[in-house]
Structure formats: C-alpha cells, structure tokens
Write a structure and sequence with these properties.
This is DUF1272 domain-containing protein. InterPro entries: DUF1272 (IPR010696). It is a single chain. The chain is low in regular secondary structure and 74 residues long. It has a single domain, classed as Herpes Virus-1 (2-Layer Sandwich), CATH 3.30.40. Helices cover 8% and strands 11% of the residues. It is built from one helix and three strands, in the order ββαβ. It has a three-stranded antiparallel sheet. β1 and β2 form a beta hairpin. The longest helix is centred in the middle third of the chain and has 6 residues.
Length: 74
C-alpha cells in the first residue's frame, strides 16, 4: 500500500492523499506537479520516472491513513 506522503520533497507544497497533483517514483519519492515538470519527470533521488500518484478516497483515511511524515530535502 502506498504511503501517500503529505508534501513535495522539493518545495514543501502540501499534497493531500485525496487530491490529484502528486507524482511519485517506484520508491515513493513524492513531488508536486510543478516540481515534477521542472525535473523532467525524473526523480532526483533515484533517477526513476515520476508518475501520477493515485488518490485515496477520504472515507478510507481512517482505516488506511496517509503518512504524516514530511520528507523535504530542499
């Protein structure tokens, strides 16, 4: 199950689990759409492709909570 990290690792933009606009690589490094575009859809951490992250429906957050750990790297 995806962690659904709460923010962009590059610019700290909030990325709610139930909203579109987040991009992830196979290691779940997470970036907002603007940063993913600036990175040419390549993860700066592993070099993997950044893809649209699926959303998690709000009613499922209680049973399957998204991560609250922020991983800003700057």
């Amino acid at each position: 199950m995806l962690e659904m990290r709460p923010d962009c690792e590059r610019c700290r933009a909030d990325l709610p689990a139930d909203a579109s606009g987040a991009f992830i690589c196979s290691f779940e490094c997470t970036f907002c759409a603007d940063c993913a575009d600036q990175l040419d859809d390549l993860c700066p951490n592993c070099g993997g492709e950044l893809m649209d992250r699926p959303t998690r429906a709000k009613p499922l957050h209680a049973k399957y909570p998204p991560s609250t750990e922020r991983r800003h790297k700057g």
